[in-house]
Amino acid sequence: MKKVLVVDDDPDVCRLLQAKLASAQRYAVIVANGGRDALRIAEAERPDLMLCDIDMPDMDGVSVAEAMSAQEATSGIPLIFLSALVTPADVRRGVKAGDRPMLSKNSSLEDLLASIDRALA
Predict the structure, then answer these.
(1) Burial class (CB in 10 A: 0-12, 13-18, 19+), 102
(2) pTM to 2 decimals?
(3) What is the pLDDT of residues 42-61, one digit of tens each?
(4) Are the CB atoms for 68 and 79 separated by under 8 Å?
Protein backbone atom coordinates (compact mmCIF):
# COMPACT_ATOMS: atom_id res chain seq x y z
CA MET A 1 0.00 0.00 0.00
CA LYS A 2 1.36 3.44 -0.97
CA LYS A 3 2.12 5.91 1.84
CA VAL A 4 0.78 9.46 1.76
CA LEU A 5 2.11 12.13 4.13
CA VAL A 6 -0.48 14.82 4.95
CA VAL A 7 1.07 18.09 6.16
CA ASP A 8 -0.88 20.93 7.75
CA ASP A 9 -0.50 23.14 10.81
CA ASP A 10 -4.20 22.62 11.62
CA PRO A 11 -4.80 19.24 13.30
CA ASP A 12 -8.47 19.31 12.23
CA VAL A 13 -7.47 19.53 8.56
CA CYS A 14 -5.03 16.65 9.05
CA ARG A 15 -7.76 14.52 10.62
CA LEU A 16 -10.24 15.40 7.85
CA LEU A 17 -7.83 14.50 5.05
CA GLN A 18 -6.67 11.39 6.88
CA ALA A 19 -10.30 10.23 7.26
CA LYS A 20 -11.09 10.99 3.60
CA LEU A 21 -8.11 9.01 2.36
CA ALA A 22 -8.68 6.17 4.83
CA SER A 23 -12.25 5.79 3.56
CA ALA A 24 -10.87 4.94 0.11
CA GLN A 25 -8.70 2.17 1.59
CA ARG A 26 -6.02 2.81 -1.04
CA TYR A 27 -3.27 4.54 0.94
CA ALA A 28 -1.59 4.36 4.30
CA VAL A 29 -1.78 7.90 5.69
CA ILE A 30 0.73 9.53 8.01
CA VAL A 31 0.44 13.07 9.35
CA ALA A 32 2.87 15.91 10.05
CA ASN A 33 1.93 19.05 11.96
CA GLY A 34 3.85 21.75 10.12
CA GLY A 35 6.72 22.05 7.69
CA ARG A 36 9.64 21.17 9.95
CA ASP A 37 7.82 18.07 11.21
CA ALA A 38 7.08 17.14 7.58
CA LEU A 39 10.75 17.20 6.60
CA ARG A 40 11.71 15.01 9.55
CA ILE A 41 8.91 12.51 8.89
CA ALA A 42 9.52 12.47 5.11
CA GLU A 43 13.15 11.54 5.63
CA ALA A 44 12.31 8.83 8.18
CA GLU A 45 9.18 7.37 6.55
CA ARG A 46 9.90 7.93 2.84
CA PRO A 47 6.26 8.43 1.80
CA ASP A 48 5.26 7.84 -1.80
CA LEU A 49 3.57 11.26 -1.94
CA MET A 50 3.11 14.37 0.19
CA LEU A 51 -0.02 16.56 0.44
CA CYS A 52 1.30 19.82 1.88
CA ASP A 53 -0.45 22.97 3.04
CA ILE A 54 1.08 25.98 1.35
CA ASP A 55 0.51 28.48 4.18
CA MET A 56 1.99 27.37 7.51
CA PRO A 57 3.57 29.54 10.20
CA ASP A 58 6.72 27.52 10.90
CA MET A 59 7.72 26.81 7.29
CA ASP A 60 5.55 27.43 4.25
CA GLY A 61 4.85 24.75 1.67
CA VAL A 62 7.16 26.27 -0.95
CA SER A 63 10.04 26.14 1.56
CA VAL A 64 9.17 22.51 2.36
CA ALA A 65 9.22 21.66 -1.36
CA GLU A 66 12.58 23.39 -1.83
CA ALA A 67 14.10 21.64 1.21
CA MET A 68 12.81 18.26 0.00
CA SER A 69 14.25 18.85 -3.47
CA ALA A 70 17.64 19.66 -1.95
CA GLN A 71 17.82 16.36 -0.03
CA GLU A 72 18.69 13.21 -1.96
CA ALA A 73 16.49 11.06 0.31
CA THR A 74 13.36 13.12 -0.37
CA SER A 75 13.94 14.76 -3.75
CA GLY A 76 11.91 12.16 -5.65
CA ILE A 77 8.79 12.38 -3.49
CA PRO A 78 5.91 13.95 -5.44
CA LEU A 79 4.26 16.86 -3.65
CA ILE A 80 0.78 18.31 -4.09
CA PHE A 81 0.10 21.67 -2.48
CA LEU A 82 -3.08 22.22 -0.47
CA SER A 83 -4.73 25.55 0.16
CA ALA A 84 -7.95 26.67 1.81
CA LEU A 85 -8.60 28.84 -1.23
CA VAL A 86 -6.87 28.06 -4.49
CA THR A 87 -6.26 31.45 -6.07
CA PRO A 88 -4.23 32.46 -9.14
CA ALA A 89 -1.50 33.65 -6.74
CA ASP A 90 -1.43 30.18 -5.14
CA VAL A 91 -1.08 28.55 -8.56
CA ARG A 92 1.82 30.90 -9.37
CA ARG A 93 3.47 29.92 -6.07
CA GLY A 94 3.09 26.25 -7.02
CA VAL A 95 4.69 26.90 -10.41
CA LYS A 96 7.60 28.71 -8.74
CA ALA A 97 8.11 25.67 -6.49
CA GLY A 98 8.70 23.14 -9.25
CA ASP A 99 5.38 23.27 -11.10
CA ARG A 100 3.57 21.26 -8.45
CA PRO A 101 -0.21 20.77 -8.55
CA MET A 102 -2.46 22.72 -6.21
CA LEU A 103 -5.69 21.44 -4.65
CA SER A 104 -8.28 22.94 -2.38
CA LYS A 105 -8.40 21.41 1.09
CA ASN A 106 -12.14 21.06 0.44
CA SER A 107 -11.69 18.97 -2.72
CA SER A 108 -13.97 16.00 -3.11
CA LEU A 109 -12.56 12.57 -2.39
CA GLU A 110 -12.74 11.79 -6.12
CA ASP A 111 -10.68 14.89 -7.03
CA LEU A 112 -8.20 14.16 -4.27
CA LEU A 113 -7.73 10.55 -5.37
CA ALA A 114 -7.45 11.53 -9.04
CA SER A 115 -4.72 14.07 -8.23
CA ILE A 116 -2.82 11.55 -6.11
CA ASP A 117 -3.10 8.89 -8.81
CA ARG A 118 -1.79 11.33 -11.46
CA ALA A 119 1.14 12.34 -9.26
CA LEU A 120 2.04 8.71 -8.54
CA ALA A 121 1.76 7.59 -12.19
Answers:
(1) buried
(2) 0.88
(3) 999 999 999 999 889 999 99
(4) yes
